[in-house]
């Protein structure tokens, strides 16, 4: 009856040695041994759960053996019944976790430092001001006369944009009381928006404004040299507008300044480049050179006089440095003559010696001295109107481009022989150098007067002469003229500059409006971005082309134009 009940209830008790009998005393041991039978993976891939991998193990002969087999071993099972790993495996896993943690920490640390550096650069390093379209116009009031309109471009505030410097004669109400000459004003306008950066009073009308660095080196300050129409020569700090020095007019004796100041190499060896001015008396032969210190504005010696006679415009003075390093001064009246800077220095100092830099001679130039070994060297004498220095290709010197009443002549700077001559009548403007063809050779754009209001290189049309235009003619589209801007005022001066940061060019004009009795002409300074003007300009068809060029095609071409500094020098 007990056996039947045990089988019916499927009690997990242990069999008695006698078949069909249930032994309740071994119930606890039986339960414990069954619970402790776990799978244990062996090295050979077998399974150990009381049976051999190859077969079934024999049953234990006694309860002691069963109890002994049921005891867990630390090397085989864990307290939770899962197989344990060797101690070496635990150490490897711990080391792997440490390496992963270090890698993650280093990555996050590097990422954080990078983000901090980016934020610092964004907030601490100022971004260069974007010039936008750089188009502005500034009314400076009424101009009180004056025949000259000096204009200069220079970056005076370090913002990367070239600013505008100009001088104008103030109205009579602004003149100095009791002064024999009307006072003038030197003004510097911001290239960004046309605002006034600084202004300084001048004792007379300015003839020329030249801004440059007189002291070599990256930390040198920009200095603006202002030459007057009478006896004024002053140097101004370009950043503040304050006068650094002014030449004492008594050193010019009875002469007046005939041309803008010319910058020379350092003559007195004080680390600053020096200057020379050309003064002329009431009679033309009374002409003299005066060397001036670039540091103090004091004369470097006495004036050096030359007696020359010529007919025509005053040419120069201009400094020319040959391939060998010899320095000459070019000047003349309707002609071009040269004098060695060495000769001027020796006479100014009243001594026979000169600095080593001035002792160099150019043999081909020295051959042109006259028979009596005069200090003057004849360069060209045939109705000279203009003289330009053009950088010679593959050379460290320049060629001489001479505009005459009969045409153009290009002289080689090395030996003063003609490179080519062009006979052309009616040339009334200064030739503009540039690369207008695909041969990579420097060309010259000429404007030839051909009737009233007409020129051979462009067609002005029948509009009133009081309307002045700024045109663009590109070699890729010779049949299209682009009208960039126009004004009703009289353009008295203009300058073109390059914005290297944005690969853009800008055009600065100085214009005066109409004047009437008792009302002086208004002075206006304007700046125009050429890339912006190219997109807004009006297209004029000079002649029909095949195929016909559309506005969209032209705009796509113009949008790719970038402006950079030209490789040649003038």
TrEMBL record:
Q: Name one Pfam family in it.
A: Beta-prop_FAM234A_B
According to the entry, every stretch annotated as the FAM234A/B beta-propeller domain falls at: 151-460, 468-563
The molecule here is called Family with sequence similarity 234 member B
Q: Which GO terms describe its cellular component?
A: membrane
- Region (Disordered) residue spans: 1-68
What lineage does UniProt assign to this protein's organism?
Answer: Eukaryota, Metazoa, Chordata, Craniata, Vertebrata
Keyword presence, Transport: no
Q: Which domain of life is it from?
A: Eukaryota
Q: Does the keyword 4Fe-4S apply?
A: no
Membrane topology term reads: Single-pass membrane protein
**Annotated family:** Belongs to the FAM234 family.
Which UniProt keywords are present, listed alphabetically? Answer: Membrane, Transmembrane, Transmembrane helix
Task: From the Swiss-Prot or TrEMBL record, state where the protein is found.
Answer: Membrane
TM spans (from-to): 106-125
Q: Which gene encodes it?
A: FAM234B
